[in-house]
User: What shape does this take?
Amino acid sequence: MKEVLLIKEGEIALKGLNKRNFEEAFIRNLRHRLKSLGEFEYRIAQSTVYVNPLSEDVDFDEVYDRASKVFGAAAICRCAVCEKDIAAICRTACEYCEPELARARTFKVAAKRADKAFPLKSPEICVEVGHEILEKYHHLDVDVKEPQLVVHVEVRDDGAFIHTGNRTAAGGIPVGTSGRALLLLSGGIDSPVAGYMMAKRGVDVACIHYVSPPYTSDRARLKVERLCEKLTPYLGDVAFFCVPFTKIQEALRDNCPEELFTILMRCIMLDIAERIARKKGMHALVTGESLGQVASQTMQAMVCTDASVTMPVLRPVVGMDKTEIIDIARKIDTFDISIEPYEDCCTVFTPKHPRTKPDPAAVKAALLRYDFEPLIEEAVENTEIKTFKHD
Ligand code: ATP
Ligand code: MG
Assistant: This one.
């Protein structure tokens, strides 16, 4: 049975003069995510993107799943297409909606006839299709007011479309329409969610990760790489920067006040991220910090870390509870990887009594106690770069 996707634009539909740019970005992203699954034709009409597979043996479950994760769409609808013939429409409706018809107790048929040349009017289509369904599925009753299932039939110029309604799509706006940012990605639960949230608002997100071998293992790094891969259905291709951080951490341990260790380390992480972001033409940094979650994520700590860079530091999960963050982590399937118990460089040399309300002047002074510049330059120089491609 031939299937197509109808994808309803979300916020894009409300854009004014820029609408075309957003639509083009959406289709570009969609094309990119689907290209390994076959050939498709893309068309836009009335704020709906129509995706028509041109190849024969397309894995349509996979097409649907991937398209549901591309930001920019409010709703997605998977439809069967058949010829504009009432017998074919009845047959297709019974077959295509079989799983839902088998589960429901009540249903109705809703018909639209955009092609006025079609001989039956909408109410007549409903009657014919409804009859056929009742004949095949004896457990069903018609309920026009509150049916459990609605079988939609749309007769258009290019065929008859049959479906059981829209499902919620990814939401947001297309990746690439809101600039580029560098996400500080740890192996934890929060930062992958932060990356997902910025991508949802159209940001093209790259990731940076700091490793401190031998204190952190290769497996910890591989875990973060797996998180990058997990994010590609949402973020698209992800550039990944891996920064050797051991020498800097050792220098911090040996030369700076212990209670400021974590905050100083964060400042240097952001400094390095900013240098790389600038080189690569990115505009902002992103972290997975949530206010008050741990000792290093207080308002005062954020004041200090912000002061160490000039780029904006975006913290999309700043106002979220851990449980809310976890809900998203589960939805985007990063949670199970995030909870694997590998060490992060942030857990190396952590002070027993970290300063929760660091004074910006004291932090600045502590950073000047030692000349970190050569180590920072060396770390930037030796940063490894990889790209994780979707599929
Ligand atoms: P997450 O769940 O994202 O690890 P967290 O609650 O464990 O967050 P911290 O360990 O305090 O928080 O880290 C705060 C933020 O600093 C992280 O969200 C991430 O953006 C960044 N970060 C921490 N460790 C690293 C690392 N090794 N590489 C890159 N970024 C890091
Ligand atoms: Mg962490």
Q: What stands out?
A: Residues 184-186, 188-191, 209-210, 287-289, 293-294, 296-297, 344-346 surround adenosine-5'-triphosphate (ligand 1) (CB under 6 Å). Residues 3-168 form a domain with the VC0802-like fold (CATH 3.30.2130.30). The mean pLDDT is 95.
